[in-house]
Amino acid sequence: MIPSSLNSKPQHFSFRIGHNDTGIRLDVWLTQQLTHLSRSRIQALMRADHVKINGKPVKDHKKTREGETIEIIIPPLKTTELQAEPIPLDILYQDDDVIIVNKPAGLVVHPAAGHPSGTLVNALLHYCPDMEGIGGELRPGIVHRLDKNTSGVIVAAKNEHAMVSLVNQFKNRQVRKTYLALAWGKLTPPSGTIETRIGRHQYKRKCMSANAIKGRLSITNFKTIETFKDISLLRVSPKTGRTHQIRVHLAHLGHPIVGDTQYGKSLRKISVHRHMLHAENLIFFHPSTSKQVEFTAPTPDDMATLIKELSEDI
Fold this sequence. Notes:
Blueprint: E1 11-16, H1 26-33, H2 39-47, E2 51-53, E3 56-57, E4 69-74, E5 90-94, E6 98-103, H3 120-127, E7 151-157, H4 160-171, E8 176-184, E9 191-200, E10 208-209, E11 216-227, E12 231-238, H5 245-252, E13 277-285, E14 292-296, H6 301-312
Parallel strand pairs: 7-13
Antiparallel strand pairs: 1-4, 2-3, 2-4, 5-6, 6-7, 8-12, 8-13, 9-10, 9-11, 11-12, 13-14
Helix pairs in contact: 1-2
């Protein structure tokens, strides 16, 4: 059951539990009925007493019983207090469900400490005002991130149905992401898989570590496209989505990304102002059609110029 548009008024749903639907956790069962809502959203509605059985509020761990009447009220989405800002965006594609943007390096994805405005989210609210409230007040529509200085293709959801679909696809590793990276040195072997446990660094709290004791399994595939004197051009495909994953994994191999001052030091002076990492390609299943769609962001000028200079220096 999917509404045709964002709910600006309270929505009311009523269900009667049949014989074949008994004994199921209520939050799980409601998620199956209201497929445009996530389980966490259902649980939040329960905590706010918006879900009732036979007129009485219930908890999420309650199990269904035959003959019960379930009533659920979905209040209007909370309007974000973030300001829409007319920040120029390179929009690759958009429809009623998603918007695909080629994010430039230097643009923060969502507001956080130190970046209350001037973010991709502020820009998206200007181009897509109906996104207000989707996915959380500070991150409307955001289902994945790119670091501030990573450029490239990023998708945002424009309604709750799309949000749930994309979040689940990322969670179930159905989304395919491909990056271009310039890394120091010659990788041997030239292609392979990096698999470690990434977590917060024990001492450097703003950094991640590839050997964290309590880290989460992280997998990155890489392939060398071209090797210059002391720099390699790589195509990298992360299979998981940990914070700074590609940067951490390449540094772990001893081949940090060119320009990455957080995880590696320059082996020689080179005129770059950010780490050379670009989200080149994104493939996922469209939330409404279920058809696989693919989007590509062209190599940014700074990276293309450096590649050209390196090629001429061979």
